[in-house]
Amino acid sequence: MCINCESGGFHTEESLNDGTLSDQVLSRRQHLANNLVDDTWVNYIKQGSDNLDDNKIEMHVSDDIPQPFKTYAKRMIRKINRQTETKIKLTKVKEQADILVDDVDNYDEFGIDDANGLAFASDDGKLNATWLSSENTCDYNNRRGKCKVWNYTKTLITHEILHTLGISHPFGNGNTEGYNNTDTAMSYNFFDYGIKNPLRPADVMALQSIWG
Question: How confident is the model over 24-79, as pLDDT tens digits?
Fold first, then answer.
């Protein structure tokens, strides 16, 4: 069971193969990626459950989630699949899914009262990526006045989905010093609220090492 308890201006996204990156940066990124993989969780997904019985990971995003957050969760799942070849398939049938993506009012049933997000395996063997409904936070700066998902919430959703795919916190600790959300969506250390894409190159590299 995994528990998930930015500065203004322009931000330039970096590609995985950006030739301008120094060897030191690439080495640091690879070192981080290697230490994001949760071997125990990966073994559970691949061997200890029925998730790969059809050579696919099927995800169901709950219809109960408010539309902007549901749309974002699906978009992030597709991005993860596209960039890592994880063989994810979105399904509308909850009973058919291996991973359930949802929000909840509280975590009373788990005896937890201070987690914004949670990733866990339920009694039926399904993996769950969820967050508190109170974290469905909008940034209403959208020109048309429509809900724009806040960057912190994007990271929260991405963080929990990545957990269910075998990614852990940096070096096993979300508060690991020297790493923050500019390095990985799995860090609790939020440094840059200007990042629109929380899926960082190290996260992609870690996923590729598992599913590539």
Answer: 888 999 999 999 999 999 988 887 666 777 778 999 999 999 999 999 999 999 99
Q: What is the DSSP letter of 78?
A: H
Residue 143 has pLDDT above 60, yes or no: yes
pLDDT tens digit sequence for 65-102: 999 999 999 999 999 999 988 889 999 999 999 999 99
Distance, in Å, from the CA atom of 212 to the CA atom of 208, rounded to the nearest integer, reads: 4
Question: Could you tell me the pTM of the whole model?
Answer: 0.88
77-86: which pairs have CB atoms within 8 A and are 24 or more residues apart? 77/101, 77/161, 79/199, 80/161, 80/162, 80/165, 80/199, 80/207, 83/199, 83/204, 83/207, 84/204, 84/207, 84/208, 84/211, 84/212, 85/208, 85/211, 85/212, 86/57, 86/165, 86/207, 86/211
What is the SS3 assignment for 79? helix
Distance CA 81, CA 164 (A): 13
Farthest CA pair distance, the chain: 49
DSSP state of 138: E
Cβ(167)–Cβ(202) below 8 Å: no
Question: What are the CA-CA distances from residue 99 to residues 68, 70, 110, 155, 180 (Å)?
Answer: 20, 15, 18, 18, 27
